[in-house]
Amino acid sequence: MPISRRPAISNLGRTATRMLVIGTTFLVTAAQTRTSLTYRPAPVDNPLKGLVPYQADVRDRFPHSLEFNYVPYSALVKGVDRFDWQAIEHLLDDIASRGHQAVIRIYLEYPGKSGVIPTFLIESGLKVHRYVNTNTQPFASATVETPDYEDAHLRKSLRSFIMAFGKKYDGDPRLGFITAGLLGTWGEWHTHPRTELFASKAVQEEVMDTYEAAFRVTPILLRYPAGAGNDLKAANAHRRFGYHDDSFAWATLRTGKTGQDWFYMAALKQAGHRAEEKWKTHPIGGEIRPEAWGIVFDDPPSRPEVQDFNRCVQETHVTWLMDSGLFAKPPSADRVARARRHVREMGYEFHVSAVTLGTVDRTPANRDRRVLDIAVEVENRGVAPFYYPWKTEYGLLSENGHKTPKIIPGNGHLMGLLPGNSARIWRESLDLQGIPSGRYTLAIRVPNSLRQGNPVRFANAEQDRDAPTWCSLGTVDIP
After folding, report:
1. How many other CB atoms sit within 10 Å of the CB of residue 368?
2. Do domains 14-41+357-478 and 50-343 have the same CATH topology?
3. Domain limits of the chain?
């Protein structure tokens, strides 16, 4: 059986010889080289993770890849089965213009805001409770308008809207995450201190059922974990939702104190094992509590109520957090430096620990077809997985690294690779047909589904070494 010419690969490491059978064609490869790669912390603004400002161009304040904003229900819902998507379109297009993805929440009540409930629902007989909401700290009390969530017309409208929302936006690359919203003050699924005005479990279940039917790609996050024994919240631990802790680093860690069983980790434990394991398959987000904005990254924080940020990150496995402390005004250099260290710990961090490169071979059946066998070993050093099935791609960079690389699609993906798991091995046979002979640097990246967005960048010293956005794997000679 003929063996093709095998030029050298300029890597050091262990070598091996193997035979690969492809259908009825035999391809012999030789002298495979496994090389360990070097760890270096990944960029703090990797996509779909980190700190999240309100929608604005504040890229000069702190690196980020997400932006958040609210949308009032009345801006979208104009009648029975009549919708106007312009408010969301403008929001998504504006955020995407900066290469960022959006986190959005749609609300039906908000202290200090009126006109949030569509007029047609009020005209149909929907009862609205108007009162001064005192649960607005650290901001002033304000009048809020809470609809009767048991109203049949409102319930039908909510179901109709969520289905249309999913049909229009599920999987939209401009969207990163959706917090379920719709129910309660700020869409946070409570009406504290007027708990009697909150939606019944039946209404909560309708909303959750419809979200599950409408969204299969874009993650939906709920405000509170809840098990079967919760008095006010419908059970959700078994459902396809993540969670968002909107009192992060203030009411996150369990304290055991009376009246603090609503703190996130306490509620998570009460909701049961499935809720505690939720982060492995569904994202955890939230908001740093307003009282802790900015100061959470000081050493020490100026308020004793602020909980240890790193411990909160480790226990919740949080991926993203809204924050205004670093974005409202230019932060100090010391605060930014500490924030970079802490925020980098959030979410995923993928390190290419090793790569095995074969030599370029031709198949006996087709002497013009050249194939490069590779195996890329990837580990997750973060606290959470990646929640989208973005696939790898490989680039062949010319020696100077300045020319546009030849891009070859890969089959590997990051989804589901948990921290502490053994390295995931992506085995690929890269088709080199049409690539001119010469010496190249083989590199890898995971492109963003948003064309303007950054790809996932690896926690490697080899990241961006030879070309921006690419992690170099080794040198390949193509005959």
Report:
1. 8
2. no
3. 14-41+357-478, 50-343
| Overall average pLDDT of the 8-33 stretch | 39
**Topology given in CATH for the domain delimited by 14-41+357-478:** Immunoglobulin-like (2.60.40)
Cα separation of the two ends of the chain: 20
Indicate whether 384 pLDDT > 70: yes
pLDDT at 361: 67
Using alpha carbons, select from 133, 74, 64 the residue that is nearest to residue 339.
64
Distance of CA 397 to the CA centre of its chain: 29
Q: Where are the alpha helices (DSSP H) in 242-388?
A: 264-271, 273-276, 309-316, 333-343
Q: Are strands 366-380 and 361-363 parallel, antiparallel or unpaired?
A: antiparallel
What is the rounded (10 degree) CA torsion for 349, 355, 361, 366?
Answer: -30
Report the length, in residues, of the chain: 479
Contacts of 171 (CB under 8 A, 6+ apart): 216, 217, 218
**147-162 exposure pattern, b = at least 16 Cβ within 10 A, e = fewer:** bbbebebbbebbbbbb
Q: What is the mean pLDDT of residues 280-299?
A: 96
Q: What angle do CA 161, 248, 293 make, to 5 degrees?
A: 105
Residue 427 to residue 415: CA distance in whole angstroms: 16
Structure tokens at 435: 């690539």
Short-list 85, 265, 250, 286, CA closest to 177? 286
- At residue 4, what is the residue type? S
> Which residues is 196 bridged to in the sheet?
none
pTM over 0.85: yes
Residue in this structure with the two tokens 């590199």, named with its chain if needed: 443
Q: Which residues pair with 21 in a beta bridge?
A: 26
Residue with tokens 């087709």: 366
- The topology under which CATH files domain 50-343 is TIM Barrel (3.20.20)
Higher pLDDT, 349 or 25: 349
User: How do strand 77-79 and strand 128-133 relate by DSSP bridges?
Assistant: unpaired
27 pLDDT band, cuts 50/70/90, is very low
